[in-house]
Write a structure and sequence with these properties.
- By secondary structure, the protein is α/β, with parallel strands linked by helices.
- Helix content is 37%, strand content 23%.
- A 7-stranded mixed beta sheet has the order 3-2-1-4-5-7-6.
């Protein structure tokens, strides 16, 4: 798992990446059967977009990320029952040692594409108590690939500065099916949960959100990006987001 989210990028991430909405967190907890006495592992936790809303539903969330600045952003939230650990998918085998409580859930939010996907699914599933689940959470399409007219303007602005922008962070249906097939090949049971939400956004929020996805080399042009998006200021802009959750469990 690469660490490309240091410094200013991490600051943008903390401010402009949304937490999983409370109602969706409630549905996820119910669907996977997370218990109050369980530990949850959040792999590639960022600044806590899954860890924080899930923490109130279990004994503790062990939030794991390879970028110290991301973990600093999470610690700054002072969330109860969230423990930060510097690490990545390669450290999962070490976490096979017994915890003080059973591992009822492993979550991976918008981050599995940075990892060895097959190995991560296999190892994460091996850490679970009987009946526990791995939840791969994706939210898409990425803002710059959305269908609205204002999103096309954003895409054009990005392409004028950085060239073609086609990456979708594997939030598309084909990636979901590939992962589902991969889990099946590993002998794991799967199901898919899907929810939608609408979010009014502003030009300043859009720029901040884009900043959270840009590396340090690209952030040098963020003021140029701001100027290109200035014509959108004052427009009514709404982002439609689909949350898809691939739930993976051991069979039996």
């Amino acid at each position: 798992m690469r660490s490309d989210f240091a410094g200013t990028t991490a600051q943008y991430y903390a401010e402009f990446r949304r937490d999983l909405p409370a109602d969706q967190a409630d549905r996820l907890v119910a669907a996977v059967g997370l218990r109050a006495g369980d530990i949850a592992l959040d792999l590639g936790c960022g600044t806590g977009q899954l860890a924080v809303p899930l923490a109130e539903h279990c004994a503790a969330v062990v939030a794991i990320d390879p970028e110290p600045d991301m973990l600093a952003g999470l610690r700054a939230r002072h969330a109860e029952r969230v423990v930060c650990v510097l690490g990545d998918d390669r450290d999962l085998p070490v976490l096979a040692v017994p915890f003080a409580a059973p591992v009822g859930l492993v979550t991976i939010g918008n981050a599995l594409h940075w990892m060895d996907e097959r190995s991560t699914l296999r190892t994460a599933a091996s850490l679970l108590r009987p009946g526990g689940a791995v939840a791969v959470v994706t939210q898409g399409p990425p803002l710059w690939l959305g269908p609205a007219a204002w999103q096309r303007t954003v895409r054009e602005a990005l392409e004028s500065l950085y060239g073609p922008v086609t990456g979708n962070c594997r939030t598309d249906s084909s990636a979901l099916e590939e992962r589902r097939a991969m889990a099946t090949e590993l002998g794991l049971a799967t199901e898919v949960l899907t929810w939608t939400a609408s979010y009014p956004v502003t030009v300043d929020w859009v720029i901040g959100h884009l900043g959270s996805a840009l590396g340090a080399d690209k952030l040098t042009r963020v003021e140029e990006l701001r100027l290109l998006l200035e014509p959108l200021r004052g427009e009514a802009m709404v982002e439609e987001v689909t949350t898809s959750v691939l739930v993976v469990r051991a069979r039996g």
